[in-house]
Design brief:
The protein is about 25% helix and about 40% strand. By secondary structure, the protein is an alpha/beta fold. It has a single domain, classed as 3-Layer(bba) Sandwich (D-tyrosyl-trna(Tyr) Deacylase, Chain: A). The strands form 2 sheets. Strands 6-5-2-1-7 form a 5-stranded mixed beta sheet. A two-stranded antiparallel ribbon has the order 3-4.
Length: about 150
């Protein structure tokens, strides 16, 4: 399982011209699910996202987590995180989980982040979405679970 985490000042997601979710100060979490991923992968990454110290303290050092600062999360399904661009000119997505499995783990991941105490908004799985991100820093990190290896 992969999560592309971006620290944001604010973010929103729209589906068919209507805002589906929005947050202020927190993280956008773009979530990709692989075919071997399980709830264990989702739990590991939910804990990592909630507790990763990526927010600045009074001295300007990245010492605070989303939990510490009351940060929010906008979680977006992102199968393209499993795009393989090594061959040819069009990405292959054969390394992404089938939609049924991916949707289940996406929903599980959002629920696990909520259980950590973070307010969560989400996109609509499988929909064409417009995501507005005010990346703060910018801070962007790629997290992977790797439990299936």
């Amino acid at each position: 399982m992969r999560v592309l985490l971006q620290r944001v000042r604010k973010a929103s997601v729209s589906v068919e011209g209507t805002i589906h979710g929005s947050i202020v100060r927190g993280c956008v979490l773009l979530v990709g699910v692989g075919p071997e991923d399980t709830e264990r992968d989702a739990a590991y990454l939910a804990d990592k996202c909630a507790n990763l110290r990526i927010f600045e303290d009074r001295e300007g050092k990245m010492n605070l987590s989303a939990l510490d600062v009351g940060g929010e999360a906008l979680v977006i399904s992102q199968f393209t995180l499993y795009g393989d661009c090594r061959n040819g000119r069009r990405p292959s997505f054969t390394d992404a989980a089938p939609p049924e499995k991916a949707e289940t783990l996406y929903e599980t991941f959002m629920d696990l982040v909520r259980r950590k105490g973070i307010r969560v908004e989400g996109g609509r799985f499988g929909a064409k979405m417009l995501v507005e991100i005010w990346n703060d820093g910018p801070v962007t990190l790629l997290l992977e679970s790797g439990y299936h290896e």
